[in-house]
Amino acid sequence: MADLSVLCAGVPLRNPFLLASGVWGESGDSLAGAWAAGAGGVITKSIGAVPRPGYPNPTIETYERWGMLNAMGLPNPGIDEYPREIEIARRAGVTVIGSVFAGEAAEFARLAGRMAATGVAALELNLSCPHAEGFGTEVGSTPEDVERIVRAVVAAVKIPVIAKITPNTSDPAALAVAAERGGAAAVSAINTLRALAIDVRLRRPVLSHGLGGLSGSAIKPVGLACVWQIYDKVSIPVIGVGGIMTAADALEYVMAGARALEVGTAVTFEGVGVFGRLVGDLASLLDELGYGRLEDAVGAAHPAR
Ligand code: DHB
After folding, report:
1. pLDDT by residue (tens digit) across 207-231?
2. From ligand 1's centre to the CA of 73, what distance in Å?
3. Which residues are catalytic?
4. pLDDT digit string, tens, across residues 78-101
5. Exposed end of the chain (fewer CB within 10 Å): N or C?
6. Whose CA is nearest to atom 3 of ligand 1?
7. pLDDT tens-digit map of 117-139
8. pLDDT at 64 over 90
9. Helix ranges, the chain (H)
């Protein structure tokens, strides 16, 4: 059986499949459930400085085969409450990466310090939620903003910092380069694409917030293009995200340059059982293609340099 273990951002992972932020991560028990089902690690919900209830319903619209649209509004219990959930997951032996969001660099640095104190293995900065006023893309869509925020966080913590960047900009690879300059240990690409659905009978957007983020199979080609371009421009690891539903999707991301992967919409559709399926199928696929180790396939689709 092919060896699926990888080292990403200095964090050893038993396999590359991470639970994506915002999915199945409400409680320590749900994080532990994803781990028990076979995930290589879990990324928490994005946690902010204070509790947020999120947007009213409806917050999700699903599109049978090709994905879903959501605008939850970054609901979270806040950094005073959430560490007890991380503690539950850590006691179960889970590799936990803590996701945080904030409105500016100093607040990011403060929150990152609090999150790091929980004992998480690494931090992921949400610089890419496509619709929350004052957060995400609004603070992370220029290279200058990304570099400043990453630099402030890196100065505040001793653990690896991962920047999750947006595809909703003309040059996502420039954001990854800026994250690397700021001291990031890895970049995650991509977050959701800003998107909209309209209910023609009600003559208004389907989601209460109006705009949302599109995820799932529909965005896989976009994510692949971003990972492909980023891999050519940075030397830190890239974590591939966007529409990974099968082992073949996963290997496409790896061959485009990803060293680890995040799975979100597939978990929403299928539950955490998806991790066992992906792990088994990816090992078989690598065996079939003659790879002894997943690491040997990273970037394999790029022309030899
Ligand atoms: C939300 C946050 C995200 O980062 C995203 O990609 C989609 C939705 C949210 O909480 O609404």
Report:
1. 999 999 999 999 999 999 999 999 9
2. 6
3. 129
4. 999 999 999 999 999 999 999 999
5. C
6. 129
7. 999 999 999 999 999 999 999 99
8. no
9. 28-36, 83-91, 105-116, 137-140, 143-156, 172-182, 220-233, 247-256, 265-270, 273-289
Tally the C-alpha atoms within 13 A of residue 153's C-alpha that lie toward its C-beta.
39
Strands (E), 153-203: 161-164, 186-189, 193-195, 198-199
Q: Which of 228, 255, 253 is nearest to 240 (CA)?
A: 253
Q: Which two tokens stand for residue 183?
A: 């001291």
Calculate how far, in angstroms, residue 130's C-alpha sits from the geometric centre of ligand 1: 7
**Predicted confidence (pLDDT) per residue in 41-62, tens digit:** 999 999 999 999 999 999 999 9
| Residue nearest (by alpha carbon) to ligand 1 atom 2 | 129
pLDDT at position 241: 98
pLDDT for res 305: 61
Q: Whose CA is nearest to atom 5 of ligand 1?
A: 129
Retrieve residue 149's tokens: 């925020």
- What ligand 1 atom has the least distance to the C-alpha of 101? 4
Q: What is this structure's pTM?
A: 0.98
Give residues (CB < 6 A) around ligand 1. 22, 70-74, 126, 129-130, 136, 191-192, 213
